[in-house]
Amino acid sequence: MRVCASGGATGRREAYAKRGRPMTNHRVYIFDTTLRDGEQSPGCSMTVEEKLRMARKLVELGVDILEAGFPIASDGDFEAVAAISREVSSVTVAALARACALDIERAVRALDKARKPRLHTFIATSDIHLKFKLKKTREQVLEEAVKAVELARRYVDDVEFSAEDATRTDPDYLEVVSRAVVAAGARTVNLPDTVGYSTPDEYGALIGRMVKALGPEVVVSVHCHNDLGLATANSLAAVQAGARQIECTVNGIGERAGNCALEEVVMAMKVRRDRLPYETGIVTEQLYPASQLLSELITFGPQPNKAIVGRNAFAHEAGIHQDGVLKERTTYEIMDPRSVGVPESRLVLGKHSGRHALRDRCEHLGYSLTREELDEVYRRFTALADRRKKGVSDEEILQLLQEVVPRRAIAADD
Ligand code: KIV
Ligand code: ZN
C-alpha cells in the first residue's frame, strides 16, 4: 500500500474526477455496509466465499464504497477484507477499525492489496458512552480520535472518521471533534445515529450545522439505525441538509432493527426526484437480484411487505386495485417493477379479488369464459378463497375450471 505524502482534503475532488465521477453537489455516495454492520447482526454471518459472492453483486449494483469488514474482529473478517481487496478494483474498499493502533494496523494490513482503500476509524463521543463504556474523558476521546486519524493517514489517503452515537453527543463537542479530525486528515466525517434515536428534523439540523462547520471539501456522511423505523427518513433529511454519503445495507439488515435500507433511499431519490434531486451511481435493476442473493446467503429474507424488495411490494390482491392495475399499472404502482429488477407485478387471487382479475388469470391459464361461466367459477372461487389465508393457487383455479367447463380448455397456442 502506498504511504501517503500529502495532507489536506482537496485531492478528493481530483480523485473523483479521475474515476469519471465529477463531484457535483447533487451526487450522493452510497457506502454499503452489508458485509460489516449487516453481517455482524444475528443470523447474518457469512463465510469468506459468501462475502466474496455478495461483494461481486455489490460491485454490479454500483455502490461507491464497499465496507468489507472489521479486520480486528476475527480472522475470517480479516481474510474477507483481504480477499475483497484483492479482487475488487473499481470500487473503494473500506475496513473498520477502532481508534487505536492495534485495530488500525490490522485494518491497513487487510487492505494491503486494495486499489482504492479506505480506512474507517471510529470512537464514541456521547457522554453516556464515555462514562459507562469507555470510561474516558472528553479530552481523552478527542486526543485518541485525532491520533487515530493521523496514524491512519500515514498509510492511506482516504480516511473516514465516525463519531459513534453522534446523535446523543453534545453538538458543541461533536463539532470540536469533527473539526479536529478533519484537521488531522479525515476526508469523510460520519455522524451515526447509532441507536436509531433521532428524528428527521433533529438529524437534519445536526447535519446542516456540521456541513456548514466543516466546509465543502469534507464529505459529511450519515449512518442511521432503524430502532424507531426512521432510518430512511433520517438519511434523506440528512441529504437534504447537505450530507453526501449514505451508509446503508441491502434489505436493511444490521444491528437490532437494522440499518437504513439501501434500496429504500436509492429509490426514494429516483422516484421522488422532484423533491429529492440527488443522484447515485446505483444500477437500480440490480436491487432485487442483490436482495435475493443476500437472502440466499444469510438465514432470512426481507419481510413480505418490505418496501421495494419484499414479496408483496408489487403484489395486488384487492379487487379494486387489481382492476386498476389491469387497466393501467400506474393507478396503484409508483414504480415499474422492472426498474428494480422485479420481473413483473403479481395479482394475488384471494378473497378480496374481483371478477376482472379472475377472468385475466383464467385467460392466462388458457380458458376464455362466457359471462355465465365466469359467474359460476367466481362463485366457487370466493367460497374457496374465504377458507384460504394465502390466496388461491393456479392449480386450484385450474381445478375449478375443470369442474365448471370440463371441455372448454383452449391450448395456449390456439
Ligand atoms: O452504528 C454505528 O455507530 C457504527 C459505527 C461503527 C459507524 O456502526
Ligand atoms: Zn452501525
Structure overview:
It is a single chain. This protein has 414 residues and is α/β, with parallel strands linked by helices. It has 2 domains: 8-297, Alpha-Beta Barrel (TIM Barrel); 315-404, no CATH class. It has helices at 11-18, 34-38, 48-61, 75-87, 101-110, 127-134, 138-155, 171-183, 200-214, 231-240, 262-271, 287-297, 319-327, 355-364, 371-385, 394-404, and strands at residues 29-32, 65-69, 92-98, 117-124, 159-164, 188-190, 219-223, 245-248, 315-316, 346-347. An 8-stranded parallel barrel has the order 1-2-3-4-5-6-7-8, surrounded by 8 helices. Helix 4 packs across helix 5 (101-110). The structure holds 3-methyl-2-oxobutanoic acid and zinc ion. Residues 37, 192, 194, 223, 225, 255 line the site of zinc ion.
Query: Would you tell me which CATH topology of the largest domain applies?
Result: TIM Barrel
Unique ligands: 3-methyl-2-oxobutanoic acid, zinc ion
What count of helical segments does DSSP give? 16
State the helicity in percent bands: 40-55%
How many angstroms separate the termini?
66 Å
Strand content: 5-15%
The succession of helices and strands, N to C, reads HEHHEHEHEHHEHEHEHEHHEHEHHH
CATH architecture identity of the largest domain: Alpha-Beta Barrel
**How many structural units, i.e. domains?**
2
Q: Sheet bearing the most strands, described?
A: 8 strands, parallel, barrel
- CATH-defined superfamily of the largest domain: Aldolase class I
Instruction: Name the poorly predicted regions.
Output: 1-10
- Strands, total number: 10
